[in-house]
């Protein structure tokens, strides 16, 4: 199984960015943790980050031919991007939405997700573990849904 992990805007700053909310782990550390976790589950994980909505749309479209599923933390685009939602709907790939913080505990503008309606499910609030749990959930879904 091949899984694409997509990180949206500002997640390249993890470790330095609002550590009280997002923790001190860097994005590179998260990615290597997910690759290792994937190995244990016989899955190949590739991660990429972009601050640009269109680059993320392109990555989702291109994923169709190479990956069986997507783990996405769309960052602030979660709350704004119909384009990302439409891209996920278009490729019809199983997608798990993750967030480091619990978006429902925060400002009301973070309570709505455009991604949620096209995702298998959402994991929010467990810090770095949200990604690990999301990866597990996605792989389990892929292995047990056919
Ligand atoms: C986030 C939550 C979003 O509201 C925020 O814009 C982010 C990070 C999270 O992982 O908690 O950039 O997706």
TrEMBL record:
<dbReference type="GO" id="GO:0009073">
    <property type="term" value="P:aromatic amino acid family biosynthetic process"/>
</dbReference>
<feature type="active site" description="Proton acceptor">
    <location>
        <position position="22"/>
    </location>
</feature>
<dbReference type="GO" id="GO:0008652">
    <property type="term" value="P:amino acid biosynthetic process"/>
</dbReference>
<dbReference type="GO" id="GO:0003855">
    <property type="term" value="F:3-dehydroquinate dehydratase activity"/>
</dbReference>
<comment type="similarity">
    <text>Belongs to the type-II 3-dehydroquinase family.</text>
</comment>
<feature type="binding site">
    <location>
        <position position="86"/>
    </location>
    <ligand>
        <name>substrate</name>
    </ligand>
</feature>
<comment type="pathway">
    <text>Metabolic intermediate biosynthesis; chorismate biosynthesis; chorismate from D-erythrose 4-phosphate and phosphoenolpyruvate: step 3/7.</text>
</comment>
<dbReference type="Pfam" id="PF01220">
    <property type="entry name" value="DHquinase_II"/>
</dbReference>
<protein>
    <recommendedName>
        <fullName>3-dehydroquinate dehydratase</fullName>
        <ecNumber>4.2.1.10</ecNumber>
    </recommendedName>
</protein>
<comment type="subunit">
    <text>Homododecamer.</text>
</comment>
<dbReference type="GO" id="GO:0019631">
    <property type="term" value="P:quinate catabolic process"/>
</dbReference>
<dbReference type="GO" id="GO:0009423">
    <property type="term" value="P:chorismate biosynthetic process"/>
</dbReference>
<dbReference type="InterPro" id="IPR036441">
    <property type="entry name" value="DHquinase_II_sf"/>
</dbReference>
<feature type="binding site">
    <location>
        <position position="73"/>
    </location>
    <ligand>
        <name>substrate</name>
    </ligand>
</feature>
<dbReference type="InterPro" id="IPR001874">
    <property type="entry name" value="DHquinase_II"/>
</dbReference>
<feature type="site" description="Transition state stabilizer">
    <location>
        <position position="17"/>
    </location>
</feature>
<comment type="function">
    <text>Catalyzes a trans-dehydration via an enolate intermediate.</text>
</comment>
<keyword id="KW-0028">Amino-acid biosynthesis</keyword>
<feature type="active site" description="Proton donor">
    <location>
        <position position="99"/>
    </location>
</feature>
<dbReference type="InterPro" id="IPR018509">
    <property type="entry name" value="DHquinase_II_CS"/>
</dbReference>
<keyword id="KW-0456">Lyase</keyword>
<keyword id="KW-0057">Aromatic amino acid biosynthesis</keyword>
<feature type="binding site">
    <location>
        <begin position="100"/>
        <end position="101"/>
    </location>
    <ligand>
        <name>substrate</name>
    </ligand>
</feature>
<feature type="binding site">
    <location>
        <position position="79"/>
    </location>
    <ligand>
        <name>substrate</name>
    </ligand>
</feature>
<feature type="binding site">
    <location>
        <position position="110"/>
    </location>
    <ligand>
        <name>substrate</name>
    </ligand>
</feature>
């Amino acid at each position: 199984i091949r899984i694409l992990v997509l990180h949206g805007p500002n997640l390249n700053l993890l470790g330095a960015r609002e550590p009280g909310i997002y923790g001190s782990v860097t994005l590179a550390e998260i990615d290597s943790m997910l690759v290792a976790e994937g190995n244990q589950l016989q899955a190949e994980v590739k991660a990429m980050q972009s601050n640009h909505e269109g680059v993320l749309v392109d990555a989702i479209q291109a994923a169709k031919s190479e990956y069986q599923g997507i783990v996405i933390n769309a960052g602030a685009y979660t709350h704004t991007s119909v384009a990302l939602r439409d891209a996920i709907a278009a490729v019809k790939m199983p997608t798990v939405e993750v967030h480091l913080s619990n978006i429902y505990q925060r400002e009301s503008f973070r309570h709505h997700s455009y991604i949620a309606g096209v995702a298998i499910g959402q994991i929010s609030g467990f810090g770095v573990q949200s990604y690990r749990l999301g990866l597990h959930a996605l792989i389990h879904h892929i292995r047990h849904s056919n």
